[in-house]
Amino acid sequence: MRTGMRLLFLLLFVQPSLFIPLPGNPPQEPNPPLTTAIQANPGQPLPPGSVSYRNTWNQTQLQQCTNPQLPREPLSPRASNWTIVVNIPTLLLMGKPSSSFIKHTYTFYANGTFLASDDRGNSFSINGLVGLPGTAVTTLRGNSTLALQNYLWVLGRQTIANVSVSYSVRKQYCQPAGLEIAISGQVDWMLAKAGLLSMRFSKPPT
User: Fold this and answer.
1) Averaged confidence pLDDT in the chain
2) What are the strands of the beta sheet with 175-187, ordered from one edge?
């Protein structure tokens, strides 16, 4: 019984001395700071390894446009002509315009004619679709970003072609970048198995 009590007290008094320095004992010196191989041997080649770099501003992935999604405008009939004006930045920095703009003006006419010009003296026009007999009946509809010209060819009592040409403002990196032209519709070439529709430019566009 006495031996057990002595061992118990011995443990209680000896264990704290492992963590709390006893009076009279000098404190232990901290370990000296480690010196890297580069600091110890300046001018020596680096050990084998790899270097990685992450480009955080010029991402090649498609950017998510932060502009709010506006409700789609209806296409309203236009009796004579319709004009869309677009300011295109000449330089983008981190997805934002950082220089001057080029002003593009697109004018659409109900007879199928289209005129494009800018504020630097460049222009060209399209005189409409050709390639079918007779004269097409054309109509024009448009809003602030889209114009639609419709061609309807009727031969006798038969509709032989119903073709639409759409002009929409094209965007790149969330900024206006020109005009996109698309042609769609149906044509009955009658006896011929195939045919050709063409658009006549006033001069080669540049």
Assistant:
1) 77
2) 76-77, 137-142, 146-155, 158-172, 175-187
